[in-house]
Amino acid sequence: RRLIGGSYVALVLAFLMLPVAVVVLASFSSTSFLTVPPQGVTLRWYGRLLDSRDYLAAIGTSLTLAAAATLCSLAVGTATSYALVRRVLPGKAAVSAIVMSPLVFPGVVIGVALLQFYSALGLAGSFAGLLIAHVVITVPYVVRTTLASLHGLDPELEDAACVLGADRLTAFRAITLPLLRPGLAAGGLFAFITSFDNVPVSIFLTGVAHTTLPVKIFTAIEFGVDPTVAAVSSLLILTTALALVL
Question: Is the pLDDT of residue 10 over 90?
Fold first, then answer.
């Protein structure tokens, strides 16, 4: 029974990893189109990637956007979670439902709605509008993980700090915030990945000067797949693997 179960798990994992192997192998092909197994081995497509201003600009935009969205989401999500748990908030259920709604609505719906809203405000195609949109879709992840951490904390710890002379802000910074680090770290990780990898919302809001890497890849494969896209994907896979190992 163990042998059968182990073999089944190995087959499932191999099936899940097969597309990754195909992409990595295709990035080394010497042909100008994707072939697996590769016909020859070359690093030309990686060099072409490093020489491409469009791809490098897209990578920089995605990293900057994901980092900024993560920081903003951590600030907004922590404040929201604290208010929902530790304060008497009128309409608490409605506030929680509104904050979590981006997890329910399809990304295409959010993208189209924000595009119409930004067109009226003059924010369409701007980095600020794209950042606000990414904060909207990443805040729920921070709120969800922070709420779980807050529910496991004793509120009397802050009260004890206040009795000993600390004000509420000092008690939160010195007592509660360090205890929330696991939840904040998990929420920040989910927020960064969600922002960096987003296509349905970003594709409606990116401008010529602010194109993210997923949108760049999506538009590139629309006109045919060349090994440069596979090289970009392979570097992302390598980066993700190194991050998991660390």
Answer: yes
